[in-house]
């Protein structure tokens, strides 16, 4: 087995395990609670499926990015629901239960929303290059690797709570180990390619990450804790899903490098933001009006 095949296998395995772990940690009641109030849910969906892709297209046009690089960024732009969103929300002292529910909703919807959105955006950004993806194949992949494990985890959590308590921690640990192994293997094999990215490219990725944080914050309603949750959820894109799509449609191209690079930037940037807000949280409580 060559390195690329190993990365693909590890990526799919990690994604399935992460989705199963997500489902095991949340009840249907928690998921339904995250859908209320409806206005906040709608704003979360708009932030992730409309506003972030729109800003991504604008920045790609501004920086005149290569079409294949654009493909990588657009893949992540339509792949929200990263499993790192809730832990980063916790570091920022935000609304973790709501972040978990929103992450699950986004992860589930991505299986249906990502293929058509990506097809439309690719045609918009590079109409003369004829870039296209196999939307049906992406739908099949995401249903198998993302939606089904997620539903399986939710079903086990609901129908076998005692069994869930036995396996939830080992499955979560395995998911984290697989994810770290995947990131490490990609970093080693893609080191030279990542190192070749120019400063202009890193600046563009930083701007996109900051814009995504701002979109999530502005869409999160009046409560600061929920603003933090939606900002973290919106800024962190699902790189594992993005890699599956990129590897199956643009293998061996800069699109894969773009997914890896921005996946790292989005997680690292959101983590730094969360650490800062976490340190400021005691000050926020002191300054909050009495009875709030």
How would you portray this structure in words?
The protein is an all-alpha fold and 292 residues long. It has a single domain, classed as Up-down Bundle (Na+/H+ antiporter like fold). Helices cover 82% and strands 0% of the residues. It contains 13 helices and no strands.
CATH architecture: Up-down Bundle
Q: Looking at CATH, which topology would you report?
A: Na+/H+ antiporter like fold
Rg estimate, integer Å: 18 Å
How do the SSEs run, as a string of H and E? HHHHHHHHHHHHH
Question: Could you give a short account of the major beta sheet?
Answer: none
Beta-strand share of residues: under 5%
Structural class: mainly alpha
The coarse overall form would be globular
How many angstroms does the end-to-end distance come to? 59 Å
Helix content: over 70%
Low-confidence stretches: none
For the secondary structure, the number of strands is 0
| Name of the CATH class | Mainly Alpha
What distinguishing features does this structure have?
mainly alpha, 13 helices, single chain, Na+/H+ antiporter like fold, globular, 82% helix, 292 residues
Q: How does the SSE layout of this entry go?
A:
Blueprint lengths: L2 H23 L2 H7 L3 H26 L3 H11 L7 H7 L4 H30 L9 H25 L1 H29 L1 H5 L3 H20 L5 H12 L3 H11 L4 H34 L5
């Amino acid at each position: 087995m060559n390195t690329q095949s190993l990365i693909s296998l590890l990526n799919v395995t990690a994604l399935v395990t992460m989705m199963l772990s997500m489902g095991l940690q949340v009840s249907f009641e928690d998921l339904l609670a995250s859908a209320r109030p409806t206005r906040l849910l709608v704003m979360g969906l708009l932030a992730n499926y409309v506003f972030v892709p729109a800003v991504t297209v604008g920045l790609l046009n501004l920086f005149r990015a290569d079409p294949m690089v654009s493909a990588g960024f657009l893949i992540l732009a339509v792949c929200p629901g990263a499993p790192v969103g809730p832990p980063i929300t916790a570091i920022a002292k935000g609304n973790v239960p709501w972040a978990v529910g929103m992450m699950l909703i986004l992860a589930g919807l991505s299986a249906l929303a990502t293929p058509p959105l990506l097809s439309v955006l690719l045609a918009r950004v590079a109409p003369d290059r004829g870039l296209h993806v196999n939307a049906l194949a992406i739908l099949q992949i995401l249903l198998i690797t993302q939606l089904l494990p997620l539903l399986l985890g939710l079903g086990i959590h609901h129908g076998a709570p005692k069994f869930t308590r036995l396996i939830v921690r080992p499955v979560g640990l395995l998911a984290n180990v697989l994810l770290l192994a995947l990131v490490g293997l990609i970093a080693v094999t893609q080191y030279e390619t990542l190192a070749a990215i120019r400063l202009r490219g890193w600046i563009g990725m930083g701007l996109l990450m900051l814009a995504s944080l701002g979109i999530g914050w502005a869409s999160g309603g009046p409560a600061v804790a929920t603003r933090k949750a939606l900002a973290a959820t919106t800024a962190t894109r699902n790189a594992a899903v993005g890699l599956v799509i990129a590897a199956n449609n643009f293998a061996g191209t800069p699109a894969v490098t773009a997914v890896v690079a921005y996946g790292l930037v989005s997680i690292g940037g959101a983590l730094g933001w969360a650490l800062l807000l976490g340190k400021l949280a005691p000050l926020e409580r002191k300054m909050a009006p009495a009875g709030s």
